[in-house]
Amino acid sequence: MSENNILEMNKENSGLGKVEIAPEVIEVIAGIAASEVEGVAQMRGNFASGVVERLGKKNHGKGVKVDLTEEGIKVDVYCLMTFGVSIPTVAQKIQDNIRQALLNMTALEAQEINIHIVGITFENQKQEIEHEQEM
Fold first, then answer.
1. Top mean-pLDDT range of 6-15, 106-115, 118-127
2. Name one Pfam family in it (predicted).
3. Candidate CATH numbers 3.30.2010.10, 3.90.10.10, 3.40.50.10330, 3.30.70.1350; the one for domain 7-134
């Protein structure tokens, strides 16, 4: 597998054809699984994803980078935590949730799930962000 190519699923030969999973699908699954964990304030995106969200389209893969390498699937998650939570505990829950979601939905095991904490949000910042998203 070369980096960021479509992942082919060749575990069983049913004679019906092949199943391919794009890295973007894994990004979306990981993004949703990470944002479901209590203590994650938001996922970090870039300028383009912020503009797309302002136009009304939710980007569920925001803050997630997937690399398909010879060793396996490597997932990097960039998120902001809520002030007052235990970062190691929440990071472990994010890894467990992503691993379980990928296994359930794609039957794939991730080689690495790396969590990058890029910031902490406070309660008043969270209210400002929610207010901006309503507008």
1. 106-115
2. Asp23
3. 3.30.70.1350
